[in-house]
Design goal:
This protein is mostly beta strands and about 120 residues long. It contains one helix and eleven strands. The protein is globular, with a radius of gyration of 13 Å.
């Protein structure tokens, strides 16, 4: 059974930091790229960051320089370190996993974790 379980969301003031975690079942973690999505205007969900099995990363322009995605293969966990948070980063963040060829194709999804940036 494929499982993705997110944690680490919460309320933070503008300029603050949060780290999201996503624990994945071993059957998918070693095979797939891992990413984070959040809702965007006009879209159901938009890519925030993705990391391949080889460690290559890709970020949305809106989070470059502020967010860092990483993966711990020993713990089957992917992280999203979010710094210099802005109110517009407020969203439910969804962890996902899927194949990465020339592009990322998220296939499995977690339930989401709420991030609220507010003073």
């Amino acid at each position: 059974q494929v499982q993705l379980v997110e944690s680490g969301g919460g309320l933070v003031q503008p300029g603050g930091s949060l780290r999201l975690s996503c624990a994945a079942s071993g059957s998918i973690f070693s095979r797939y790229a891992m990413g984070w999505y959040r809702p965007a205007p006009g879209k159901q969900r938009d890519l925030v960051a993705v990391i391949t099995t080889g460690g290559r990363t890709n970020y949305a322009d809106s989070v470059k320089g502020r967010f860092t995605i990483s993966r711990d293969n020993a713990k089957n966990t992917v992280y999203l370190q979010m710094n210099s948070l802005k109110p517009e980063d407020t969203a439910v963040y969804y962890c996902n996993a899927g194949p990465y060829y020339s592009d990322y194709f998220p296939t499995y999804w977690g339930q989401g974790t709420q991030v609220t940036v507010s003073s």
